[in-house]
Design a protein that fits this description.
This protein has a single domain, classed as P-loop containing nucleotide triphosphate hydrolases (Rossmann fold, 3-Layer(aba) Sandwich), CATH 3.40.50. The chain is built from 8 helices and 5 strands, in the order βαβααβααβααβα. A 5-stranded parallel β-sheet has the order 2-3-1-4-5, with helices on both faces. Helix 1 crosses helix 8 and helix 3 runs parallel beside helix 5. The protein is globular, with a radius of gyration of 16 Å.
Length: 216
């Protein structure tokens, strides 16, 4: 059986990850490629509970290390029960955030030890890393505008997240973390300018995915 492949979408909140995942999913359907679409946190029932704690309960004042452990608990459940079984079935797995998000957010932005976060992530994923990471690079000054529910076309965006409300310097540190990871892992992490039109971004992503699918 052909092995599955894991594609993660990363970037600042508002960079367009969800939009691009939806567009890619439609394209994969036309190509008859078996896939699943998921997210971190929240790809499982346990993950959805953890997501509520992490993103929608600011009054809990979760400290950085506790935050990191909660994300890793979600990831361990996610990989054990959903991601790894799908990969073993030969499916493509699309995930909104994965391995690199923890390093950028809890490592670079929150100031936790980066090696510790990476080791925890590898433990949670049972050694798996994405085969391709699409990094949608967004200017941090655009985060508030893009994550404002009033700016969405549908008005149905999930309520404003704890990370959305962080100051611009926080998002700058996250971006610096993602850029550092992209420089360190250019074979896996492919950066795309998120200020382009969704259609132009989609075309770039299709080229990356086609190359991945054709690789042995």
């Amino acid at each position: 059986m052909e092995k599955g492949r894991l594609i993660s979408f990363e970037g600042l909140d508002g960079a367009g990850k969800s939009t691009q995942m939806t567009m890619l999913a439609r394209w994969l359907d036309t190509q008859h490629v078996p896939f699943i679409q998921t997210r971190e946190p929240g790809g499982t029932s346990l993950g959805n509970e953890i997501r509520q704690l992490l993103l929608n309960r600011p009054e809990l004042a979760i400290v950085p290390l506790a935050e990191a452990f909660l994300f890793q608990a979600d990831r361990a459940q996610h990989f054990a029960t959903l991601v790894i079984p799908a990969l073993q079935e030969g499916k493509l797995v699309l995930t909104d955030r994965c391995f690199d998000a923890s390093i950028a957010y809890q490592g670079f932005a929150r100031g936790l030890d980066i090696a510790l976060i990476e080791n925890l992530s590898l433990l949670a994923t049972q050694g798996y890393k994405p085969d391709l990471t699409v990094l949608l690079d967004l200017d941090p000054s655009q985060v508030q505008h893009r994550t404002d529910t009033a700016q969405t076309l549908t008005g149905m965006r999930e309520e404003r997240k704890r990370f959305d409300a962080e100051v611009e310097t926080f998002h700058q540190r996250v971006r610096e973390g993602f850029l550092a990871l992209a420089r360190a892992h250019p074979e896996r992490i492919k950066m795309i300018d998120a200020s382009q039109t969704p259609e132009d971004i989609h075309r770039e992503i299709i080229s990356l995915v086609e190359a991945l699918l054709q690789a042995n």
